[in-house]
Amino acid sequence: MTTDGTGVDRLAGLVARLQRELEESREAADGRALVELAKGMLVERLRCGPAQAAEQLALLADRAGTTQLELAVDIINEASGDDFVARVPPTADPGDRAAIRLRTAESGVLQANDTQAVAQSLFAHALSPLGAAAVAIWSAGADSSLTLAGQAGFAAGEAQRWRYVPPGVATPARRALLDRDAVWISDLAGSGLPSIGGDLPGRVAVPAGTGGRITGVLEICWPDVLEPQPLSVHKQVEALAELCAATLDSAASHGQIDHVTTAPAELADLADGLLDPALVLGPEIAADGTLTDFRVHHVNNRFVDLAGRPRSAVAGKLLLEAYPLAAAEGDLFDKVERVHATGEPFRAERMTLAALVDELPLTVTASVSVTRHGVLVLLVWRVQDEAARLANLLQHAQRLGRIGGFEEEPQHGKVIWNSQLYALYGLPPTADPVPLSDITDHAHPDDLPSLNGFLRNVQHQHRPASAAFRLHRADGVTRHVRVIAEPVLDSHGALLAIRGAYQDVSAQHWTEVALSAAQDQLAITTQEVEEHNRLALRLQQVIMPPTHPTIDAFGLRVAVRYRPAAQEELVGGDWYDAVVLPNKQILVSVGDITGHGIKGATGMVALRNALRGLAATGAGPGQLLKWLNLVAHHLTDHIIATALCGVYDPLTRVLRWARAGHLPPVLIRNQRGELLPMLPGLLLGALAEVSYQEGEVQLEPGDTLLLYTDGLVERRDVPLDECMERLCVAVSGPPLDLETLLDELLATSDSNTDDDTCVVGIQLL
Question: pLDDT category, 210, cuts 50, 70, 90?
Fold first, then answer.
């Protein structure tokens, strides 16, 4: 005996060769079956013997330039008159002989003795030429479960692992079953659906059924990502699914597939054992195999017709004949059809059912159950009782409203509570109810006077009454409760009973307490804010009056206008200054502090006074802003501000200026307004060490220079550059005296920010 494996290799080669020969013989047998079938058709048509038919078939094939198998398929297609192969256009699959493959597959399926053989025949004759790598035939159970009835191309372990798919597991086959339509998936991994052969990305799942009932699903797998397929392939796949449907029906009838089925007599006995009305429905199939309606095979003993008809008036009729509105009102027919097709049960707690009574529709609300049992469908319903439904709604309303009802008969000492009242008192349902007369034993002592008046009105004066009190429970919890009661009197005015309700208003009480505290705190806060605003306004008015005395010195006129914010809470930190310095130069400045209220006003005072003191040193505007930045950064409470500072020298008529994040001045010369250059300069207080660049402008007689804050020009809906351009246009034109110019600027400003506004005008006479 050799040990080098040569004998094993030879044996494996022999087995492979025998398998190939077996497959080839099966294919040849399928082809011969089609040829023999075509010969039989020729014998019938030509009324000749088998030998003459064979000669005629060979002669016709030779003349047509085709094979006897191709000609046999054409003869069978023409004679069959069905659309199994005719639906696939012959030109849609050139060179692939789709018609021959489909007829060969059909022949193999008809000769197969089980579903596994059907799967292998489909895979060998029809699917491998399409590039498919595997095929699975799923049988659909009555509970919409899936059983692997046949497969080809999968590993044995993979097929065993996917032998059964329980109801509710989402797979491509399950989606095809529930959607009742083909599901094409280009990449299984991207779909998120698990399925047999997970390493085969491309696949299609097609429902297979007859007579409106889906008996299974044909799932075909490709080894690569599946590109969009032509219409001919779609048609071929649908045709193969029809073959599988016929096979699954046949296999189920012979017990080869483990379907959960129920005989009609057994289902009728099951329906009669139910306590609710039920119908046993069977499908009505048209000549073309489509589902048209359901026939009422059985009506159970509990049946109560919506229209008042007896059982005999419904039994044996079609569903749409007995209940024509089932196709419209509530989609009952659609639900029954879906359950019959897929096997997935349908249940609804509230569904509208309708029937015609004297040609008028009568609708009721019912809970409905629809289940499939073999080929039959069981329809069960329960009309909701109006009184029970209202009682259920009342119970929910009492629970949500924390309301407990009671009724007591004082003469007999009988007290009835509902479950909500036991929960309110913190008592178990087995405890004795507390009579209304003992309510004071469970109340806060401070609430006893009002409760005594409540009991006097109800028990003695026989008048409805209500009271609010604090309920002390045995578990130490205190609840705020409102009790309402009314007496029930007989015809002589005697007290028969007392009915009423307790309502737990604890949440409302504590909400009111919290709301009252919040309102008090809000009032205090509002008062403090108003006081701060008034203080800020008074401080601002003292430091920044609306007008400033006009300065006339050294041929220069300086005028100022200030307009505070329209609302006290918006009082801000705009400031201005114009003063003659000890060195006979003139300081002009404007600025704007971020923030409003008392912080903005005090910050404005600090910077304005600091700048005035620093200017007495005779330093230039750039140096003044550098020092002022140190003040804002180190010596104040985190002030951030913009500022513009100018120093005018009467001897040279030169105005030197610098800006710290502020808007540039506007020079009016020769009846035309023009913005001065936008010098670089960071806001005050942003950084500790900042330098500021200076600019110079030589004033000429008649020139006017405007320094202003953004409250004069800024609009929320317009870019700032455009706002400043509007200001230049507004000041252009015939010259005005300085006072009139400033007044008109404030009067005609279209700013909409409700901010403070400062304008400083400098005019060389």
Answer: confident
Q: How many helices and strands (H and E) does the chain possess?
A: 20, 27
Paired with 318 in beta bridges are 295
Calculate the alpha carbon distances from 545 to 286, 549, 563, 587, 744 in Å.
Answer: 99, 10, 9, 18, 18
Which pLDDT band holds residue 260 (cuts at 50, 70, 90)? very low
Q: Are 502 and 521 contacting, i.e. CB atoms less than 8 angstroms apart?
A: no
The structure tokens 């403090």 sit at 528
What pLDDT digit, counting tens, does each position of 335-382 carry? 898 888 888 889 988 888 887 766 667 778 888 999 988 889 999 998
Q: Which amino acid is at 528?
A: E
Quote the CA–CA distance of 55 and 78 in Å, as a whole number. Answer: 20
Q: Which amino acid is at 757?
A: T
In the block, tokens 């310095």 appear at 581
Task: Kindly give, in sequence order, each residue whose CB lies less than 8 Å from that of residue 381, ignoring residues fewer than 6 positions away.
Answer: 276, 277, 278, 351, 353, 366, 367, 368, 369
Co-location of 444 and 554 in the same domain: no
Q: Read off φ and ψ for residue 397, nearest 5 degrees.
A: -65, -40
Are 305 and 361 found together in one domain? yes
- The CATH number linked to 413 is 3.30.450.20
User: Quick one: 377 and 409 in the same domain?
Assistant: no
Nearest Cα neighbor of 742 from 728, 726, 758 is 758
**Domain presence at residue 612:** yes
> In angstroms, what CA-CA distances link 589 with 59, 659, 707?
116, 10, 8
Burial 539-576, CB ≥16 within 10 A → b, else e: bbeeebeeebeebeebebbbbbbbbbbeebebbbbbbb
What's the predicted TM-score (pTM) here?
0.41
CB burial string 12-48: b at 16+ within 10 A, e below:
eeeeeeeeeeeeeebeeebbebbbebbbebbbeeeee
- Domain residue limits at 278: 264-384
Same domain, 324 and 279: yes
> For 162, phi and psi rounded to 5 degrees?
-105, 30
Burial of 457 (0-12, 13-18, 19+ CB in 10 A): middle
Angstrom distance (rounded) from CA 622 to CA 581: 17
478 — phi, psi (to 5°)?
-110, 130
- CA-nearest of 699, 719, 709, 721 to 749 is 709
Helix axes 6-46, 68-80, angle to 10 degrees: 50
H-state helical runs in 182-230:
188-191
Kindly calculate the radius of gyration of the chain based on its CA atoms and give it in whole angstroms: 49
Per DSSP, which regions of 59-163 are E strands? 134-140, 146-152
How many angstroms separate the CA atoms of 50 and 488, rounded? 104
What's the token pair of residue 239?
A: 């045709």
Residue by residue, DSSP assigns 456-517 as IIIIIS---EEEEEEEE-TTS-EEEEEEEEEEEE-TTS-EEEEEEEEEE-HHHHHHHHHHHH
